[in-house]
Amino acid sequence: MIRHIVAFELETVDDEARQAHIGRMQDALEALATLDEVESIIVRPDLGTVDGHWDVVLVSEHRSNADLEAYQAHPEHRKAAEIAGEFVSRRAVVDYEY
Q1: What CATH number has the domain bearing residue 77?
Q2: pLDDT higher than 90, residue 13
């Protein structure tokens, strides 16, 4: 199994806009759970209790690296990434096998 973790830093500083952006990201990205290449996917905001933490995290699981690559190339993933990318200033990614 491959776990794919993406941390996002959002551009906005306004809390109301931040919450709206996170909601849109969750809707777009969690909808990818229906893809055959995805075992699970979750998108959640940081608790907001520590300064310096990133704003949002995506954690997805895939049966193999080939499935992860197919997921990333999938047209639905590209659409969701475009929506999420509207609000993101930086992202960090880690993929590991377990």
Answers
A1: 3.30.70.100
A2: no
